[in-house]
Here is the input.
Amino acid sequence: MRKILATSMLITALTLPSLPALADSYSDTSALFKNAGASANFFNSSYGYAVFPTIGKGGLVVGAAHGTGRVYQQGKYIGDTSMTQLSVGFQAGGQAYSEIIFFEDKRALDEFTSGNFTFSGDVSAVAITAGASASAGTGGSTAGASGGKKDATTSGQYQKGVAVFTIAKGGLMYQAAVAGQKFSYKEAAK
Here is the structure.
């Protein structure tokens, strides 16, 4: 088991440096999501959000993903967060993506910043790519097409007070796995 996990992490480490840098900072990543269809509307209507410029993911049967981000409350930076994901199932390859999580209200943000927050399998994400977007979850699925990463067509809505959007940055990964993302939070120094 340890050997498989080590192999997964090695694939991620070797894949990430060769990926194109589409969004290298928090403001660049936020700008991409602000220009990506329906995700743009969430900046005006959400109570807060967490943005992850790069999450690296790799796997071979057992997979892992990790990324660091920042949390904002009504547009103001309030702390740092990290995401870790372990998955088991049929998967192979490595990939990098950006992710943003919108919090509908104070309760949802407070739940995220209270310590350890985990997404279960019933939370879906809308994937924004250079040529297409799609989402799948317990509520059904949607898809769309667009001309570029800055004007991708997206659709999404809050599920249990959160909405998640991702932008693929590069890599190649096939995955049919059960996975959950676990987040930690650290308040910014005042």
